Amino acid sequence: MAFKTYKPTTPGRRATMVDAFDDITKHKPEKKLMMVHKKRTGRSNGRITVRHRGGGTRTFYRLVDFKQQRYDIPATVNAIEYDPNRGARIALIEYADKVKSYILAPQGITAGDSVLSSKNRIEVKTGARMPLKFVPVGQMVHNIELLAGQGGKIVRGAGTSSQLMAVEMGYATLKLPSGELRKVSQECAATIGVLSNPDRNLIRLGKAGRRRHMGWRPSVRGKAMNPVDHPHGGGEGHNPIGMRRPETPQGKPALGVKTRKRKKWSNFLIIQHRK
Length: 275
Description:
Elements: E1 3-5, H1 11-15, E2 17-19, E3 34-36, E4 43-44, E5 47-48, E6 60-62, E7 75-81, E8 90-95, E9 100-104, E10 114-115, E11 129-131, E12 140-142, E13 144-145, E14 152-154, E15 162-168, E16 171-175, E17 181-185, E18 189-192, H2 208-213, E19 270-272
Antiparallel strand pairs: 1-2, 3-6, 4-5, 7-8, 7-10, 8-9, 11-18, 12-15, 12-18, 13-14, 15-16, 16-17, 17-19
């Protein structure tokens, strides 16, 4: 991934870095694989449940196939495209029966390559999708199912991948990007390779306006508010928050508090929690 910088003609331009899109081979998406993307702006039933969301550039959602259940039908990569709704690139593939689809593009895949999805053991190469029981131990995979046939749910971010550590007793042990060691059923499917666009986190936005284009609104510090608006509020001038740990606007502990349910059914599948 290459970056593009500008002459520092303004303070915003001085720090701005943009994606050069060198790996993009097609700039107009397939109309049949798009739908209107209605934004919730952080609201549920009209009430704000997630703060600092709203606005942003209007985008269309690309219908990405996370299941890839057209088994044993070879497909050819027609193009690598940009998706405004995710960090990784997407690949436009065309099956032998002329059906087109979008999939997450692994790193290193190019137009003209072939990909295949199967329930059986197939050749291990970038873009191939098969159950974890057929994947060699130590291989990097992405777009992993948590329940067989459900479609990929984890490891779908730009540049991420998970390493297959072992396959035994009906379960596959995976080391996730967060550092968590987790077991999933060996019947769950995964795609071989590392996801594309690994340098996305190195981009500097440079100015607040680009953040607004992404749908993020300004954030106000709690200690700058009044006591009626935030637990950190109040006091004269620049003062500490006045409590032993930070709290949310609702008065609940913030920063590092576990939110996972203690009795969640899948707890026994986690061997080692993330760091």
